[in-house]
Amino acid sequence: MKANALYHLMQLRARKLSEHLPENRKTELLEIQASIKIQRKPGTYKIDWKVDQKDYSITLESDPFQFYEKGDNAKRNAMRTDDLNYRTHNWDAALALWQDIFKASDLNSEMITDDGKLAFGKFGKNSTNTPLYQNLGIALLFSILSILRVPLVETLQFFILISVLLLFADNFSTVHLRKPLSLIEKLIIATGCIIPLYYGVSLAGVIFISTGLFLLGLAERQDKNKAILFNVSGITFGLAIYSMGIFAITLSVAMAVTLLLIALVDRQRISISSTGLFIAGILIAWLATYALILAGSFSPYMQQEIILSQQHLNWVTAGTLVLLFLGFTMLWIIGVQYYLLPWLSLFAVVIATVALLFVERTDVLVMLGIFTGFSFFIFERVLTGFFTSMHGSGRVI
Hints:
Elements: H1 2-18, H2 23-35, E1 37-41, E2 44-51, E3 54-59, H3 74-79, H4 86-104, H5 130-146, H6 152-170, H7 183-191, H8 194-198, H9 204-220, H10 226-244, H11 246-265, H12 272-294, H13 310-334, H14 341-356, H15 362-367, H16 371-391
Antiparallel strand pairs: 1-2, 2-3
Helix pairs in contact: 1-2, 1-4, 5-6, 5-7, 6-9, 7-16, 9-10, 10-11, 10-12, 11-12, 11-14, 13-14, 13-16
């Protein structure tokens, strides 16, 4: 496990170093990146690589890295002194290791240097609420405009939907390019929410879905309240089943299987108990809704009739699915994955939408129009990252 952690750290460090290397030296760095292999030995590491098809190897005499220590988050690092800030410590140790690799390869190690800034951001004690205020401002702007067409209750739902969807999209600033959403990106994402509102489709289901997806991404990043967040996320998925039927069921199953697989492979990231609480939340919400319907306290959901060209709707849906699927595949290829659930949720949404196409639920397809602008946002991030990776200008991180 620690060997894999060091491997990814070295690759991440190399990307940052390449920004400061001359073009004629980047080739050697890329060759080492492509061939480097790291094995964990008792108390240390063995590193193998190639330069000009010649094999090289070094073994560290001690272990300078601190992986899987309590404190790999912003709050704990802000409370520590610089000597105990593990991320900064590992970042600096990786630079020293790259210098040793270049020395062992008979290459000029003095070129291996940079500004020392963390590629994933430096933790500070102060944070800003500007992104949240910006999200609320955009949601408020769209909602004010919607009052001209829809009742106040639907306007309030519209406001909540945009706010939650933007929060979900914010999860991707920790997955790819490590940068916050721009104002233009947020406006594009919010524009998709107009589609179900325009056709008069209920927004309750997609509010629950968006909330559940956001909470999953949030739970993965937390140390405290992780179990509660997974459980509440499951409850929101279960509530969405009432109005979204097969889509919400398929999405819930896909996310549950995803959580279970991650828990089996990496319990430090997501535990079996958290997965169980997520599944329990789905079942509790779904059974409670079903019981209320049987008791007559709740009316069964009536499918909304929407007059649309099915062929036209299928083409739009297919286009959106292609953009999301390309985003899913390319984010893995060119992105740096700090967290898995935002990225894997893209694939889950694709699977659930494909399953929906086999049933006649035009109203649910229209509900999913909220992901239209979001799909363009994901695809734009992919293109930006791919272009940056190919041309070596700007940041990939």
